[in-house]
Specification:
The chain is α/β, with parallel strands linked by helices. It has eleven helices and 13 strands. The protein has helices at residues 3-9, 19-24, 35-46, 103-106, 110-131, 167-187, 211-221, 240-252, 271-282, 306-312, 320-338, and strands at 26-30, 50-55, 74-78, 93-96, 134-140, 191-196, 199-200, 225-228, 234-236, 238-239, 260-263, 268-270, 288-291. The protein binds uridine-5'-diphosphate (UDP).
């Protein structure tokens, strides 16, 4: 399968083409109603694939899928990946995007978050083994924990607390990487592991409590901008479209790429800088309000993307200003449509100001 050709030709199977072509061009996206999963669904439908979108809708939203739900080549399956999975037809590609990803959301039920990561990975790996499908794990920069080196390269083994509020997610994702590795070695499953760094863009859930969504919504509503800690901690923000392009290149590469690959934007910003950018771009007069830094909040995060550049010919193309512009426009519409979102309803409501 050649990714570049797929994109160029935008080939859609015709009725008289053999059924095998359909099956070769079928993809399962677990977590397909989420922020990134739904964008993958859109991309694969555009490319002429049959798409099985599996989601338990705990954090995913059907509104992310829109008109896809009416297409015959798009199949939505409401299912929690902690339970075994069967499909109505064959697939050649599987994405495991299934897990709540924002700290306030994955901390609501930490035991279920860990089960989602471990049992979900096992169930999807079994399915990949059964179908002879290639499978990609949406891993995370969280496997590096609070990193002692910067930028983080894939060979760094991380600094993760096993018994903190973030552990259910961080350790779950680390265990899932191990399962992917072991299914590759022991069962010959064709695996890919993408370590995703902070991603933002249109389609984010206004209520998921992440820094980009919180700041933009607060600025647009004139509410205080909630900075946790002193705002000197850093993150590297990757725009949705760049990120998904990186995932697809990793999935479709013909190279032997079973080892983890960082996918993220190396542009590094402090949280205070992000707040100033959002204020300037929205023209907001919101004040800054400082709150305690959550336990185990990483001090810095920046990907070394040498491997993605060399192996996939990929690097981000959308800088933070341009990405924020599109994201601010998206949230302005979302707020206008519902009138109900805002910092005060954010899931991560800091207990007390400092
Ligand atoms: N953060 C913040 N204000 C908010 C939400 C988050 O200052 O309203 C901080 C948070 O403490 C962290 C960074 O922004 O240092 C990124 O948080 P996010 O939840 O977006 O993702 P994380 O990288 O922590 O998983």
């Amino acid at each position: 399968m050649n990714y570049v050709n797929d994109v160029k030709l935008n080939h859609f199977p015709q009725r008289d083409e053999p059924q095998s072509l359909w099956s070769a061009r079928a993809v399962l996206i677990a977590g397909g109603a989420g922020f990134l999963g739904s964008w993958l669904c859109h991309r694969y439908i555009e490319m002429g694939y049959r798409v099985y979108c599996l989601d338990d809708l705990s954090t995913g939203r059907l509104s992310n899928l829109g008109e896809l739900l009416r297409l015959p080549q798009f199949v939505f399956i409401k299912h929690d990946v902690v339970h075994p999975i069967s499909l109505p037809g064959p697939v050649s590609l599987i994405y495991n995007m299934a897990c709540p990803a924002s700290p306030p959301r994955y901390q609501i039920d930490p035991i279920h978050t860990l089960r989602t990561n471990v049992s979900g990975a096992l169930n999807l790996l079994e399915l990949a083994s059964l179908h002879g499908a290639r499978i990609l794990q949406a891993s995370t920069s969280e496997v590096y924990g609070d990193p002692a080196i910067s930028p983080q390269r894939e060979s760094y083994h991380g600094n993760v607390n096993t018994v903190g509020p973030r552990s259910c997610y961080d350790e779950g994702k680390r265990a899932a990487e191990t399962l992917f590795h072991d299914y590759h070695i022991c069962r010959g499953v064709d695996v890919r592991i993408a370590r995703i760094f902070n991603t933002y863009g249109p389609g984010m859930d206004p209520l998921d409590g992440r820094v980009v969504s919180n700041f933009i919504i607060q600025a647009l509503k004139g509410a205080p901008i909630t900075i946790y800690g002193d705002g000197s901690q850093t993150r590297s923000f990757c725009y949705r479209d760049d990120l998904v392009e990186g995932l697809m290149r990793l999935m479709h590469s013909d190279r032997d790429l079973s080892e983890p690959v960082n996918i993220g934007n190396p542009g590094e910003f402090t949280i205070a800088e992000l707040a100033q950018k959002v204020l300037a771009m929205t023209g907001s007069t919101s004040l800054l309000s400082y709150h305690p830094l959550p336990q185990d909040d990483p001090r810095q995060r920046r990907p070394d993307i040498t491997s993605a550049r060399q192996e996939l010919g990929w690097e981000p193309t959308v800088n933070l200003d341009r990405g924020l512009e599109a994201t601010i426009a998206y949230f302005a519409t979302e707020i206008g449509a519902s009138g109900a979102h805002g910092g005060q309803r954010s899931l991560r409501a800091p207990a007390q100001a400092v």
